[in-house]
Amino acid sequence: MKPTILRPVFCEAHSLFTSYPRLPLPPALRLLYNKDEQERTDDDPSLHEGRVRSFPHERGNWVTFVYIPCDPLPLLHTLLEVFCNLLESIAVLKPVSDLHISLTQTVVLRHHWIDPFVDSVSEKVKELPRFRITFDSVNVYCNEAKTRTFIGLTVSSGADALMSAIRVLDECLSEFKLPAFYEDPSFHLSIGWCLGDLTEPISTLVPQLDVVFQQFRQAQPDKWHIDVEKIMCKTGNKYFTFQLQS
Ligand code: AMP
């Protein structure tokens, strides 16, 4: 169709709409169609220690991950102080406040998927038995966006049970076409973090960090484990808990 034919029709319809005073849209509809309010990608890193959101904050999208929550190990604070001193010339290391072992990557769920996703996780995870995890070395990790570097304690025993958890969670993720966990998972408890990708300079000091950690382990061999009784899912600001079999 030629635009010359279409234009008068459009103008007519447009003038029909504009000749009447517009009623305000109900707030719920305004939110649905107002892109500024719907897709707020603005982020102020100064409000959260310089961290940049890896996923834009978007209405209807819920940033989600499944993890094992961890209480602070008794000597963690002291260990981290020593690590901070050793890394002083390279990085400003901060403690990780929400200690956890990740069992999925951070994924984005649409709001209407939350309940079915949580049901699916609950159904599959309830078959898993409780288990113990121990840590035996230090490693350095970087997030996908290369905006944060983490110092982690890597899991030695308990990795098999973690792999079983990953397998069932990967099944849940695939039901929702979400990405599986890392092909080559390195299970760890991040204890400190810093801004940017500092994997390279920190890696050169990992052997020294590891020597310190081994000294801590020798001094208190029974302190470096976690008894895993539950798994959690955080989606947006909601938390779901799944108890493992006793
Ligand atoms: P987390 O403490 O579990 O949040 O992990 C810290 C970062 O390690 C995450 O941002 C992951 O992307 C990153 N990471 C990099 N490589 C791996 C891996 N092979 N296994 C697990 N996490 C990894």
Describe, in plain words, how this protein is organized in 3D:
With 246 residues, the protein is α+β, with helices and mostly antiparallel strands. It has one domain (58-243): Cyclic phosphodiesterase (Cyclic Phosphodiesterase, Chain: A, Alpha-Beta Complex). It contains seven helices and ten strands. It has helices spanning 3-18, 27-33, 35-38, 76-86, 114-125, 159-175, 199-219, and strands at residues 61-69, 94-95, 100-102, 107-110, 131-142, 148-155, 188-195, 225-228, 230-235, 238-243. A hairpin with a 5-residue loop joins strand 5 and strand 6. It is globular, with a radius of gyration of 24 Å. The chain binds adenosine monophosphate. Residues 102, 141, 143-144, 150, 182, 184-186, 190 line the site of adenosine monophosphate.
Q: Can you give keywords for this protein?
A:
single chain, 246 residues, alpha+beta, Cyclic Phosphodiesterase, Chain: A, five-stranded antiparallel β-sheet, 10 strands, disordered N terminus, binds adenosine monophosphate
